[in-house]
Design goal:
Helix content is about 15%, strand content about 55%. With about 200 residues, the protein is of the alpha+beta class. It has an 8-stranded antiparallel beta barrel with strand order 1-2-3-4-5-6-7-8. A hairpin with a 4-residue loop joins strand 6 (about 145-155) and strand 7. About 25% of the residues are buried.
Amino acid sequence: MRFRFLPFVVLITTCFSTFAQDIASKKTPGIGLNFFFNDFGSAAAIRANPLGSAIRDNKLSKIKDMSPGLSITFIKGVTTHLDFATTLGGSFLDYPTSTGGTLGTDGFLLEGDASLRAKMLSDEFWIVPYLSAGVGVSKYKGYFGATLPVGAGIQVNMFNNAYIILSTQYRLKITDNANYHFVHSIGFIGDLPRKK
């Protein structure tokens, strides 16, 4: 009689331990600093030519043609394989429009976005590839714009509470005051101190 309930006890124990592991492996809230490059030239070349010919004909931008900037990121785990991230960054640049004109020169571009990162592996692994998608807003010399940032990246686990993030986002314009561009970044994110 005692052994009839043994499979149920094992099943319930396994479910609770699996649930506890899922909660424990979610990323704790963290904050980080990123160095990035705005790449309008490569986005324009790819929109005007097939990707293969843009690469073959060396139409993609070099680093010297990109505009550098700094951003801060807040990140928090939603599930084991899904993180929420929000970023606020700024850079000084000439902002080209998609029609070949410009919104201005030597202005400050402020961009913010909120996105979800779908990770292929949990944070216990040393290298974790991920895909991201979200919504973004920008301000440049009084012009406001909206974008849809989509991208990919790699998270490198340093000490289980600190990460190096390498990523590339393609920002699709939604409004006329925004333009298609890439944002290539490298950053360092550390966990926030936990309350005792």
